[in-house]
Design a protein that fits this description.
Four Helix Bundle (Hemerythrin (Met), subunit A), mainly alpha, globular
Amino acid sequence: MSEIKLENFKKAVTQLNEAIRIYKQYKNDVLFPTVRNSLIKCFEIAFELSWKTLADFLRTQGVNIEQISPRAIIRKGFSAGYLKNEQLWLDLLDDRNNMVHIYRESMANGVAELINTKYARAMNELLGVMQ
């Protein structure tokens, strides 16, 4: 597995964790929309690196990868036992796609809370498995 890719994913998860810390501090502040949007951007970056790093990791573990897409890699990662909750990761993918392609303010608040309560934890767990 590419150590550079893993290191970049680790940095992205660290930045995501820091963005969550700041997000919690600014929930009732005038700067909240900017902080929330920064959290979502950190999430998008961490997600991109998560599935690409997982694809690399699966190859080094001898997993046959026939299709390279986030959904296919998530499914392979789950079936190989490296992801605990396939549906959570598929929801994470859908929310990432919605934020990138259909961004709506009302949707952003819900996704930010999911990042805070579920998605970042899943990325931290994946990082722990691959290290």
